[in-house]
Amino acid sequence: MKKTIVVFGSTTGTCEEIANTIADKLGVEAINVSDFSEDTIKENDNLILGTSTWGSGELQDDWYDGVEVLKNADLSGKTVALFGCGDSESYSDTFCGGMKELYDACQGANILPGVSTDGYTFDDSDAVVDGKFVGLALDNVNEDDKTEERIDAWIEAIKPRL
Questions:
Q1: Residue 76 and residue 98: Cα distance in Å, rounded?
Q2: How far apart are CA 20 and CA 98, in angstroms?
Q3: How many contiguous H segments (helices) and E segments (strands) does the chain have?
Q4: Minimal CA–CA distance to 114: which of 148, 146, 154?
Q5: CA proximity to 125, closest of 86, 154, 152
Q6: Which one-letter DSSP state was computed for residue 109?
Q7: Nearest to 82 by CA among 23, 8, 10
Q8: Residue 144 and residue 162: Cα distance in Å, rounded?
Q9: What is the DSSP pairing of strand 29-32 with strand 4-9?
Q10: Where are the alpha helices (DSSP H) in the chain?
Q11: What's the angle, vertex CA 26, arms to CA 21 and CA 30, rounded to 5?
Q12: What span, in angstroms and rounded, lies between the C-alpha atoms of 73 and 127?
């Protein structure tokens, strides 16, 4: 596997916990997006980016500066995988929508395919493109019993491409 880093934005700690789980399973480092810079991008071949979703489908607050870093960086030759945390019950119409903003900011990179919407219960999400999430969608509020299995299946799918 090429040099990989997990970058997360987390307010309540859920996305941080998930980022650390992913990083541990891959044997790589996880950093908070507040420590993310253009140098981070230059030093890594693979970026695994994660955000929680707030309000009506918005990114976690710390990601707004991180998105500017992504938009201003040369992402050609970089591989990106996305994951997002959301609440599919209380925010069923914006579930994991924050991932879409990361997806849009990473155009120009090789963005790995996301996961199928099968097995998820939600009404709508901007993070669904062509019938699939743009990354790994997780609901640690209502479906925490599925989180580990979903992470493992996703890592198995993306690891050969990292």
A1: 23
A2: 19
A3: 5, 9
A4: 154
A5: 86
A6: B
A7: 8
A8: 26
A9: parallel
A10: 14-26, 38-43, 63-72, 98-105, 144-158
A11: 55
A12: 22
Q: Which amino acid belongs to residue 122? A: F
C-alpha closest to that of 59 among 101, 12, 107, 105: 101
Structure tokens at 21: 């789980």
- For residue 64 the two structure tokens come to 């707004």
Tokens 């916990």 belong to 17
Distances (CA, A) of 57 to 91, 123, 160: 8, 13, 31
Closest listed residue to residue 63, CA positions, set 29, 23, 15, 110: 15
Q: What's the pTM value of the predicted model, to 2 decimals?
A: 0.96
Pairing of strands 29-32, 110-111: unpaired
Per-residue pLDDT of the chain (162 residues; tens, 9 = 90+): 999 999 999 999 999 999 999 999 999 999 999 999 999 999 999 999 999 999 888 999 999 999 999 999 999 999 999 999 999 999 999 999 999 999 999 999 999 999 999 999 999 999 999 999 999 999 999 999 999 999 999 999 999 999
Encoding tokens for residue 156?
A: 């198995």
Q: How far are the Cα atoms of 20, 26, 99, 140 from residue 105, in angstroms, in the given order?
A: 23, 24, 10, 25
